[in-house]
Write a structure and sequence with these properties.
GO cellular component, one term: cytoplasm
InterPro entries: AAA_16 (IPR041664), P-loop_NTPase (IPR027417), Sig_transdc_resp-reg_C-effctor (IPR016032), TPR-like_helical_dom_sf (IPR011990), Tscrpt_reg_LuxR_C (IPR000792), WH-like_DNA-bd_sf (IPR036388)
Number of strands: 10
Protein name: HTH luxR-type domain-containing protein
Oligomer: single chain
Helix content: 55-70%
CATH superfamily of the largest domain: P-loop containing nucleotide triphosphate hydrolases
GO molecular function: adenylate cyclase activity; ATP binding; DNA binding
Distance between the termini: 57 Å
Number of helices: 49
CATH topology of the largest domain: Rossmann fold
Strand order of the largest sheet: 2-3-4-1-5
CATH class of the largest domain: Alpha Beta
Radius of gyration: 32 Å
Organism: Dactylosporangium matsuzakiense
Number of domains: 6
Length: 940
């Protein structure tokens, strides 16, 4: 909304904080400030005053208010804000047009290519490049109305650009609840960003505001009447203007006094009296303008009133002089939406119907978003409502790829308009359930779906409804419920085979995570066959990746690789939806299990590039999860932590909580490896909170992290209690050992220390059986020798484990074997050599818990730390080697994505490293970091 037309009163502290934020950007600092307050409390005025401070702050400003109609146009809020940059920035010209609207070329690309993820990556790169040349402030007023894709983009861009001189300013009301914008504001507040809460003006500020409006001092009669406004500056200003306009406030001898008896008692009566003080032509102009619900041109309101634009110049001048309308960027806008709503309330029903019908036609002519047309039609009677429902349905399907929650809102709105008994509901229900489900609104989707089923649906619609529910519950981690819905869908008769293929594919994955390996493999096989036969290749690919998961869980590693390779071949050949299933996620996992680490690294790199090209954001947390596992196996623990942390952040941004759970498990294990037990406990607690909502995952992701932490904190008995079922399942489901061979000796150690030798023997037998089923796999044979050597104390088995692990890329596995071999050898010199080698490995990998254990139990020598990069007294020594690498490249002037390319990391991982660097060193921007590196770097 437009700010007050008067000065700032009673907000000196808040304005100083906002101006300091703007000035901070000029000094190279990023960050985010959130202004919260009720409607009319002065947020917009403060935002305008702060951003007009740019003349002395030396930053570029992009400023725009969001509008309620933004919600149906993906990315319109952020894109339109950035288009306000002055001077214009050519690097973001590709955002031109009207994002998400019917006419914008950018909006069409966003929908046609399903490329929102790539769009956000490109936008982030453009802003990072811009900020490297010129500090930037991005200010969005009425942020509660921003569209869903803008909210998603900002949730990612705020932390991603935290190291750049980009300052975000947001102002919002604390209502209405549940909008994407308000959810974003709440999240940013939880993340600890600066908040400014605006309350009522004090009496002195009210007096000064009244005096400014009147142009003279005011007496107690004015202050007494202003008291009905409860310190709300908008209402105070409108009240005083209205009293002045209607002759109820007179100025005599330089003092304003209220006279008369019929004084307004509420904001609505204030506006009503204000209207009566204006000419009839101006009243008509304001009532017509109130219908639009957004800024409007003189030409548009003239067409609405069937008048010549020139005939409205005098009423426009009267309305702006009275402070009811303001001119902004060549259009007219009410001084505040509260004023517009009060004016709109003076319209009669018949007049409003006529005006909305004409406004719908004008919106069409101007190429406004279809939802705006529909909102007008909904207020024009039965005929208009039918057309509006069609528009809402079409719009929902159109915006769904970029804004699923918005799409769900639109189609639910359409169903509400139709009513329960309308025959047109059937065509909308399946789409509505699918959209609600994809937006994560599972309970609402389930309720609507069950209601529709009771009313009766045709077989295809019923099966599609079940498919939508199954997919939604599967991706939310509610695998048991997903299996039930897939069962019901497959039980429907006369369902096309292509739909059955999709149902089998989703059931394969749900069954796998629900523990039914045989059923999952059967479904995966059925999906692959039916998909190939019907051309539903995405189902084939997804079914084959399900079979790959099953094969790996059962210890058939060559089969796991074969299924994933087959799926990847199909996706590469047919592209389309099949490629969107990203089988390289599982291909890389299968390659890693076979110790083909370099191939897995390249597979993940290629898969990530493809994901960015296709814009499939859902896959991002999975790439982080599997790459973090590979980095852990390589012994690059710092990079693995950053990778997993980035994965959690992305999963939470996407509300993909089922994908966050295994990543949190990874972080728990990594924190234990690094000796940071409080951090491990925090990660595990976070994982438990997510699971308390019903999210499930593979038992290995659930129980192993908890057992590892319990062994470190409470002792082996508690750990064994948690891990018993996992151990008992190992003979049939040895996936824990297949993915990470170090778990076999670790489990044996826990079992022996807990006095459960039978459990230790179970682990050894499972490890040996896995190695025998996969001849030639050195790491599995080494793990079996290592586990049995720990159980029996046989030094030759442990020596064999060392030699085998030495021929694999698994550094931490080698260190573990060296440690146990050193403890069990009778050759003192050999033991010291093995201990020294183990300490060198774990020190280099930053496996602090193992290093401390080795130095304590074996008395091994401290490993050399390598050639120092920084001065001995430099605070940069607090950084891990991985963080030092990032710091050095940032100091060279590289942007985050360039650092990511140079270090072969994801951009999210670099962002994570930088956030830790700034926290450890208490820095606020890249310039400070570069100066510190320049000062403390040695000439090496």
């Amino acid at each position: 909304m437009i700010s007050l037309t008067t000065g700032t009163f009673g907000r000196d502290r808040e304005l100083a904080a906002l101006r300091a934020a703007v000035a901070g950007a000029a000094r190279g600092f990023g960050g985010c400030t959130i202004v919260t307050g009720a409607a009319g409390i002065g947020k917009s005025h403060l935002m305008r005053a702060a951003t007009e401070y740019r003349a002395t702050a030396g930053v570029s400003i992009a400023f725009r208010a969001a509008f309620e109609l933004d919600r149906a146009a993906p990315l319109i809020t952020l894109a339109s804000t950035l288009q306000q940059l002055r001077p214009p920035e050519p690097a973001i010209d590709w955002l031109s047009g009207d994002p998400g609207s019917g006419g914008g070329a950018f909006g069409r690309r966003l929908r046609e290519e399903d490329a929102q993820y790539r769009t956000l990556e490109r936008l982030g790169a453009a802003l990072e490049d811009y900020a490297a040349r010129q500090p930037l402030v991005i200010a969005i007023d009425d942020a509660q109305w921003m569209d869903e894709l803008s909210a998603l983009a900002i949730a990612e861009l705020v932390p991603a650009l935290a190291s750049s001189p980009v300052r975000w300013l947001f102002a919002h009301r604390p209502a209405p609840a549940g909008t994407p914008g308000l959810q974003l504001m709440e999240r940013l507040a939880r993340d600890g960003h600066e908040q400014i809460l605006l309350g009522a003006l004090d009496d002195d500020a009210v007096r000064r505001l009244c005096a400014k409006v009147v142009g003279a001092d005011v007496d107690n009669t004015v202050l007494a009447v202003a008291g009905v406004c409860d310190g709300n500056p908008l209402q105070v200003e409108q009240l005083v203007r209205t009293l002045h306009l209607t002759g109820q406030l007179l100025v005599a001898d330089g003092v304003g006094t209220v006279v008369g008896e019929e004084l307004p008692s509420s904001f609505i009566t204030i506006v009503d009296q204000m209207l009566h003080g204006l000419s009839s032509d101006t009243q008509e102009l304001l009532q017509a303008g109130a219908v639009f619900g957004r800024p409007f041109s003189i030409e548009a309101v003239a067409e609405l009133l069937d008048r010549r634009p020139g005939a409205l110049l005098k009423p426009v001048k009267e309305a702006t002089t009275a402070g009811v309308l303001v001119e902004q960027d060549g259009e007219l806008e009410f001084v505040h939406d509260l004023v517009r709503l009060a004016v709109y309330g003076t319209l009669g029903g018949a007049v409003a119907t006529v005006l909305h019908r004409q406004a719908a036609a004008i919106a069409r002519e101007e190429g406004r978003p279809p939802v705006e047309v529909a909102e007008h039609l909904l207020k024009t009677g039965r005929t208009g409502r039918r057309e509006a429902v069609t528009i809402l349905h079409e719009s929902a399907l159109e915006v769904a790829p970029a804004a699923p929650s918005t799409a769900a809102d639109l189609i639910v709105h359409a169903l509400e308009v139709l009513g329960e008994g309308d025959p047109g509901r059937v065509a909308l229900v399946a789409d509505a359930v699918g959209l609600l489900a994809s937006a994560g609104r599972l309970e609402q989707a389930q309720d609507l779906g069950e209601t529709a089923l009771r009313a009766g649906l045709d077989p295809r619609t019923e099966a599609m409804l079940m498919l939508g529910l199954a997919e939604a519950f599967k991706h939310a981690g509610h695998n048991g419920i997903a299996v039930e819905y897939a069962d019901q869908g497959l039980a429907v008769t006369d369902v096309p085979e292509s739909v059955r293929a999709r149902l089998h594919a989703i059931r394969a994955h749900a069954r796998f995570y629900h523990g039914d390996l045989a059923g999952a493999d059967t479904d995966g096989q059925a999906a692959a066959a039916a998909g190939l036969a019907t051309g539903e290749y995405a189902a084939s690919v997804f079914g084959l990746t399900g079979r790959s998961l099953v094969a790996q869980a059962q210890g058939r590693l060559d089969d796991a690789y074969g299924h994933a390779e087959h799926a990847t071949g199909i996706a590469d050949k047919v592209r389309g939806d099949a490629a969107h299933r990203h089988p390289r996620i599982w291909l890389g996992d299968a390659q890693a299990a076979l110790d083909r680490f370099d191939e897995a690294e390249e597979t993940y790199r290629r898969g990530r590039r493809e994901s960015e090209r296709l814009g499939t954001a859902w896959s991002t947390p999975l790439w982080h999860y599997y790459h973090a596992a590979l980095l852990t196996a390589r012994g690059r623990l710092d990079d693995a932590v950053a990778e997993a942390e980035a994965g959690v952040a992305v999963a939470l941004n996407l509300t993909a909580y089922a994908l966050a759970v295994p990543l949190l498990g990874q972080l728990t294990r990594l924190a234990v490896l690094q000796g940071d037990l409080p951090q491990a406990q925090a990660h595990l607690a976070h994982m438990h909170r997510r699971m308390a909502a019903g999210t499930t995952c593979a038992p290995e992701d659930m129980y192993w992290p908890e057992g590892v932490l319990q062994e470190a904190v409470t002792g082996p008995e508690a750990a064994l209690s948690t891990l018993c079922d996992l151990i008992d399942a190992l003979p049939a489901r040895p996936v824990l050992i297949a993915q990470d061979p170090t778990t076999a000796p670790a489990l044996v150690h826990i079992a022996i220390r807990a006095g459960a030798e039978d459990k230790a023997r179970t682990v050894v037998a499972a490890a040996r059986g896995l190695a025998e089923r996969n001849p030639g796999q050195l790491s599995l044979a080494a793990a079996a020798d290592h586990a049995e050597g720990v159980l029996t104390g046989d030094p030759w088995l442990l020596r064999g484990a060392v030699e085998r692990f030495r021929r694999t890329p698994r550094r931490l596995a080698l260190a573990g074997a060296l440690e146990d071999a050193a403890l069990n050898t009778a050759e003192e010199a050999q033991g010291r050599a093995w201990a020294a080698e183990a300490i060198a490995i774990v020190t280099d990998c930053r496996a602090e818990r193992a290093r401390r254990r080795l130095e304590f139990s074996l008395g091994g020598p401290k490993a050399p730390t390598g050639r120092p990069v920084f001065r001995p007294d430099s605070p940069l020594h607090q950084l891990t080697p991985a963080e030092q690498n990032v710091a050095l490249r940032v100091a060279e002037g590289l942007q985050n994505r360039q650092v990511a390319t140079a270090l072969h990391l994801s951009r999210h991982t670099v962002d994570s490293h930088l956030r830790k660097i700034f926290t450890k060193l208490e820095l606020r921007g890249r310039v400070e970091l570069a100066n510190l590196v320049q000062r403390d770097r040695l000439n090496t």
